[in-house]
Amino acid sequence: MNQRTLIKNLATSEEGPVSVSGWVDTVRDQKKVQFVVLRDESGAVQLVNPRAPRPEADSAEEQPADAPESLEDIISGLSVGTFVTANGSLKKDERVKLGGVEIKLASLEVGVPAIAETPIAADSGIDKRMDWRFLDLRVPRNNLIFRVQTTLEHAMRGYWIDNDFVELHTPKLMATPSESRAELFRVDYFEGAAYLAQSPQFFKQMAQSAGLGKIFEIGPAFRADPSFTSRHATEFTSVDAEISWVDSHEDVMQLQENLLVAALTAVKEKHGAEIQELFGVDVVVPTTPFPRIPLAEAKRIVAERGHTIDRADDDMDPEGERQIAAHVQETLGHEFVFLTEYPASIRPFYHMRSDDDPTVTKSYDLVWRGLEITTGAQREHRIDVLEAQAREKGMDLEELGSYLDFFRYGVPPHGGFGMGLARVLMLLLHQPNLREVTYLFRGPNRLTP
Questions:
Q1: Residue 161 phi, psi dihedral angles, 5° rounding
Q2: Which of 204, 268, 269, 425 is deepest in the core (most CB within 10 A)?
Q3: Radius of gyration over alpha carbons of the chain, in Å?
Q4: What are the residues whose beta carbons fall under 8 Å from the beta carbon of 226, sequence distance 6 or more?
Q5: Residue 265: which residues within 8 A CB-CB, separation 6 or more?
């Protein structure tokens, strides 16, 4: 048997014998010629089989009962989604719309036939498509999402490694909550209990005390959040970084904006044309520095635009994020904005507070096209201040014992951020829902497939 060729490589292959394998995308069974569009993980190609003329008297009854099925009959019986291997002769023809090549069939081997009636269609709702995600991902547009994700992650790792970061894989089973008991999954653990990590926060900070300096992690995180919004999930991929020897959260913001520029540049260079073709989206590589607006000022701007933030806490609401993003786009022509100086009342106990105003923190949220994708901050590294802030938040110092130990033996000033990977992809590709860009989504009412 001929060695299998990826469809994307056919354009640069020599004419002649070739073998390809993939899924049947469409069949056009015409009177004089049969066409099959075959798709593999790299692209699609047209298979051609000219029908042989038959004498008028020819009939199925005249054929021997044990005669092998003809190529024509095999093609006529194909259903969409059937997995086949096609052997034939590669021909190059600029008139062929699908890549300028086609394969004149010599044989077709049916590997795995597909059920003729497919459970989803192009217009199926998102929940139905999620039920049949493996079929949903055969669509080239959806398949591209995870090629973009691969490039995005690879570029971020490349940036970190080029800048002497260390990659860590922190545990996801914890003896104590990583941030608070809110939105926490508790699981049985032998004779006791454990918690699924809400973030790698504590372990990122331990790495600073350990002297690793600059670290990163891309890994799962869990939030027992009963939200059914388009931007929340109970399991998500968190992109985290932490660095030592910072002067303020400004160092963290500079790290993140440079990281995003590197990642988006790589995506644009590798996938920009395909993203435009399949999503109708131009990938915009942002300029640096990103705009920075203190939260109090951002609220004033939002109010002047006619939106009243109605929240019990002092945080920005989703519409406020959209409004401040619109303001930045209109006035500065930028898709990103750092909102800074968040009140201590709504930030975790480990965020460092301002020297000038202890009611605000040295922290930020990064908003991209109207949606928050990141929280970052300089961390409090002074043990006495850290303990006082934990008590103020009503936290149990005994329960935080192992975490607080990180700060009893000398730790440099440090800071970092956590960023939701799916939110980045959702915004990059202008998708309406996290579920569209998550391989297998997990939410309050979805644990399968």
A1: -65, -40
A2: 204
A3: 28
A4: 444
A5: 155, 285
Strands 16-29 and 33-40, by their bridges, are antiparallel
Rounded Cα gap, residues 323 and 312, in angstroms: 19
Could you tell me which of 167, 180, 172, 284 has the C-alpha nearest to residue 237?
172
Rounded Cα distance, 26 and 133, in Å: 20
Compute the distance between CA of residue 258 and CA of residue 262 in angstroms, rounded to an integer: 6
Which position has the token pair 């021909």?
Answer: 91
Structural tokens at position 177:
């909550």
Beta strands in 245-297 (DSSP E): 292-294
Residues whose CB is less than 8 angstroms from the CB of residue 417 and which lie 6 or more positions away in sequence, other chains included: 240, 241, 252, 255, 256, 366, 374, 375, 376, 377
Write the single-letter amino acid at 49.
Answer: N
H or E segment and range at residue 186: strand 186-189
Strand, coil or helix: 13: coil
240-258 burial: b if 16+ Cβ within 10 Å, else e: bbbbbebeebbbbbebbbe
Q: Per this entry, what is the length of the chain?
A: 449
Task: Indicate yes or no: pTM above 0.90.
Answer: yes
Q: Which two tokens stand for residue 137?
A: 């991902």
Q: Hey, which residues does 216 pair with through a beta bridge? A: 167, 241
Helices (H) and strands (E) in the chain, counts: 12, 16
Listed residue (442, 443, 400) closest to 181, CA to CA: 400
Instruction: Report residue 247 as tokens.
Output: 């002067």
Backbone angles phi, psi at 437, to 5 degrees: -115, 10
For the chain (449 residues), the mean pLDDT of every run of 10, in chain order, is 86 96 96 96 96 64 70 96 97 91 97 94 94 96 97 98 98 80 89 95 97 98 93 96 98 98 98 98 98 97 95 90 98 98 96 96 98 98 97 93 95 98 98 97 96
3-class DSSP state of 223 = coil
Q: Please, are residues 378 and 363 in contact by the beta-carbon 8 Å criterion?
A: yes
Tokens describing residue 405: 């130990």
Cβ proximity of 103 and 45 under 8 Å: yes
190: Cα within 13 Å, side-chain hemisphere = 2
Distance of CA 55 to the CA centre of its chain: 58
Burial class (CB in 10 A: 0-12, 13-18, 19+), 316: buried
Of 233, 239, 179, the residue nearest 443 (C-alpha): 233
Task: Order the strands of the 192-196 sheet from edge to edge.
Answer: 173-174, 192-196, 186-189
